[in-house]
Design brief:
Length: 286
């Protein structure tokens, strides 16, 4: 999780990046527009990793120079000695004014989603702790994401099976979204993770809202509880890692499921503290 003083990050080191591509990864029929944006930076001091964040400095309003928002690094590659590429997964956001009931565009997300290739952005960071892959390839990995929180896991899974040449331990991905159409990398329009379904050590489990029209919570807790035996086995396996990414509301769903799986809230709290102390629980929530 990013540091508690994340809001106080020093913007003295501001980098620039050029947009190489912007691809919608949810179907046109979905009400949720989620895009993957790939940027190139020539600033070699920038050392982003999958799972850490960048602070995008969108043009400000009302006399402010910047409108600042954090985004997870979904992928990162050093393509050449003098440049690097990184990807962000961005959902076009809107919010409703509680006073007048009018809907307004989210400033940073709409700025990014409207960018055309060749445009440049300013940003700072990285912030927070990246998801670290253990040296032991027999270690089991549990990934839990919601919405655009799946983005860094796509990058991690690609590294496991392409750059590392495979993975011996279990790799389990639990991902939630309002509907199946809104699953980044797991919907019909863009199913990148389907490339790894034939890997014997990889499985993905989807969770959706039981009543999306009424904004009922995504049943991520149910998906975890339905696979309780394997989830608990991974949590207790030596050298395993648990990665969590997405909105902060995930904490409630995960704690609910894990309390049920562990048998009590005290048992789960003890186990979670043990995982955190050992560096085996890594999360980025926003």
């Amino acid at each position: 999780m990013p540091d508690p003083d994340i809001a106080e990050i020093d913007d003295s080191a501001i980098y620039k990046a050029v947009l190489l591509s912007s691809e919608r990864i949810t179907p046109e029929s979905s009400r949720e527009e989620i895009r993957q944006l790939v940027f190139r930076t020539d600033d070699l001091d920038f050392d982003g990793k999958v799972g850490s964040c960048v602070r995008v400095l969108a043009p400000g309003q009302y006399g402010n120079r910047y409108h600042k928002r954090f985004y997870l690094i979904a992928d990162h590659d050093h393509q050449s000695p003098d440049a690097a590429e990184f990807a962000l997964c961005v959902r076009r956001c809107f919010y409703t004014d509680e006073v007048n009931g009018e809907e307004y565009e989210g400033i940073a997300s709409n700025y990014l989603c409207d960018l055309k290739p060749g445009s440049s952005i300013e940003f700072s960071g990285p912030v927070g702790y990246p998801f670290v892959i253990p040296a032991n390839q027999s270690a089991s990995l549990l990934m839990i994401g919601m919405g655009t929180g799946i983005a860094p896991f796509r990058g991690l899974i690609r590294m496991l099976y392409e750059q590392h040449g495979g993975w011996k331990g279990k790799v389990r991905l639990f991902h939630g979204a309002r509907t199946g159409l809104e699953m980044p990398y797991l919907n019909d329009a863009n199913n990148d993770l389907g490339n790894y379904f034939d890997q014997p050590t990889f499985k993905a489990f989807q969770a959706v809202s039981p009543r999306p029209m009424f904004d009922a919570p995504v049943a991520l807790d149910n998906a975890l509880e339905q696979n309780a035996a394997e989830v608990w086995e991974i949590i207790n396996s030596p050298d395993s890692r648990i990665y969590v990414a997405g909105q902060s509301q995930m904490h409630t769903l995960i704690d609910k499921a894990m309390t049920s799986i562990a048998g009590s809230s005290d048992a789960w709290l003890s186990k979670r503290n043990e995982l955190v102390a050992a560096g085996r629980w890594q999360e980025v929530l926003y």
